[in-house]
Amino acid sequence: MIQDETRERIRGWFAGRLPEAWSAAPAEVTVDREEVTVLLTVPDVTTAEGASAVEVAETRAGRAKAFREETRETRMAIAREAEHRYGRKVSWGVRLGEGDDAHGELWTHVSTPVMTRLRQPQRLVLDTLVDAGVARSRADALAWCVRLVGQHEGDWLAELRDATGRVADVRAKGPAA
Fold this sequence. Notes:
Layout: H1 4-17, E1 25-31, E2 35-41, H2 53-86, E3 89-96, E4 103-106, H3 120-131, H4 138-152, H5 154-173
Parallel strand pairs: 2-3
Antiparallel strand pairs: 1-2, 3-4
Helix pairs in contact: 3-4
């Protein structure tokens, strides 16, 4: 578990280091043991009155692509500084718009292998997803399951992370071993 102080240090550093022009809102900085993901919210696009949802979506996708290209050198320099400072890879993404029709992209990210042992009933779930064409492999099926839980249990996971953080705080206050 990453300590809250470490997360705060990293978030604070990025808040001070990112160019102000890049954000319509504060960057969303997510930290784990291997990676720091910086999700930037840039000003939404302006389209003609009465533009279809498809046109708006494509305008946002085009703006995200342009932003990626325009900021590449600066993002790479910031990432190198952060990687040296915090020992984690830095990944980038962007969000435009709000609500269900918002456009979001992650341009770079770390795929970390995770070893697990599963009993036959769990393997059968993964094999069913593979056989049905939902996933190409058991690894893809497991990643699909994790994404699904993340989408549908976000509040519960946030509460669980908060509780885990409180447990770490209590442990830190305890007697030295």
